Every structure is written in structure tokens, then in C-alpha cells.
Amino acid sequence: MQRLKPQIQKTWVVGLFVLSLFGCGDRTFPMPKSWKTYENPRFSFELPYPGDWTSARVPSNLDGRTFYHPQNPEVRVTGWGGYLLRTGESGNISEVTPANFTTDQGVRGKLTVEVASEVTLVRLTLIDEAAIYHFEGRSPSGEFADYYRLFYDMASQYRIGETVGEVGKIDRGRSEF
Fold it and tell me: Which superkingdom does the taxonomy of this entry point to (predicted)?
């Protein structure tokens, strides 16, 4: 029994060493070389997504779309719109949802990160006079650090309103942090 203890200790030390080596590497998801753009004519928004990601079936109400990582379907992004329901006396929903984020287009919105034991989400909400727009990036919590930058860049490049459809005006490069 005494001989087993040193063997277990060695196993733990080697295991921790190997784990520390994996933790030191750059695990960030590489930025895509090519992009595609989902354009939603019903709510007039655009969502850029990596060119090799797979799209889910378009919902019958045409409010948005989900795109999945080709090797890991647990990693996905969704963009959708909805009709704005006025709240409060002034009818200004921005009073309920204070802005903390600005897209590359200059639209202010609210960006949140929701961390849970199994799944972590990046959510962006944008509001204009007639509609509310959403972006969601989702990954397993253990892999979230690998995808955060990608999700942030996609949220930054989410476009709404009049300029939708003018794809050439959207910068598909990396945003600077």
C-alpha cells in the first residue's frame, strides 16, 4: 500500500504538468478566412458568420437564423429580430435596457455574457423605433475562452436598418480591442 502512494503522487504531478502545458497555449478560435452574410429582409438586419459554418433551417416566421460550427455543433450563433413592444409611460424601451456596447455601425445596445456551468452565452440586444434585434453566441462553458473574441467581433459587425443589403460597406476584418 505504501508503494502505491508515491505512484499516485507521480501520476498527479505528471497530469498537472500536462494540463498546465495545454493551458499555456493559444486556444483562441482562429478568425475565419472567409465570411458569409445572412440578410434578414423581414427585420432588415445582417449577421456575418464564418464561411464554413452550417446554417439551420430557416424558421417559418422568418425572424432569424442559427449557424453552427462545422466540427462542434454545440458552438453556434443566432441572429433574430422582433417587433418592438413599447413599455412604460414614455414608450422608450431604451430606459429599460441601458446601452453598454456600440456596434461598428454606431448603433448602441446592450451586450451581456451569461456564464453557467455547461453553457456560456454572449447576447447583444439592439433597439430602434420599430424593432428589437438580437445576437447570441453560444458555446460550452469550458470552451468559451476559445470563442469569445469571435462572438465579440460578430456582435460588433451586426448591422440593422437602412444600410442592410450594402454588403460592401461592412468591414469583415478583425476589430481592435
Answer: Bacteria
